[in-house]
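Pinned message: reference record for Aldo/keto reductase
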Amino acid sequence: MPSILGKEVGSIGYGTMRMTWNTQPPSEEVCFETLNTTLELGANFWNAGELYGTADYNSLHLLNKYFTKYPENADKVVLSVKGGLKKGELAADGSEKNIRRSVDECLRLLDGKKKLDIFECARQDPAFPVENTIKVLAEYVKEGKIGGIGLSEVDAETIRRAYVPLDFIVVTKGAPDCCR
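Predicted structure (tokens):
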């Protein structure tokens, strides 16, 4: 069985985007039933995002409610969260200030109900080198606030530049097969 950050995960993951980034999102009841079913079927690697919805209601708000109702499931899930965009916009902002704002906001929205296993900037901001992004996020890992770092929609060269000899970097979609 595959593992991420030393935790076993099913061979299929689950993305929560359509639960909150939708003009007519499904009810919480439908979402909770779906999330419970994913766990029953072994899909315990979940993806959420600060950008999956609005600043007032996104997938992190939903997951807070889910883990409030089902606290026994928090340790069963390996949660990867995308953020790092300008608040309320679909525009990358790789500044240290914004990355910190984004991680802190994600942690605030989860409110200790679930650990932030992986954080990844949804887009790499060309105005800021990936090395800077990794440096900021590595501080959060060292502090125990996030479990690992993910990279989203980057190429092989960006992965090479981001690489540091640490065991908490995770590569997700957008990378060539040879680099996953």
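Pinned by admin. Summary line: The mean pLDDT is 91.
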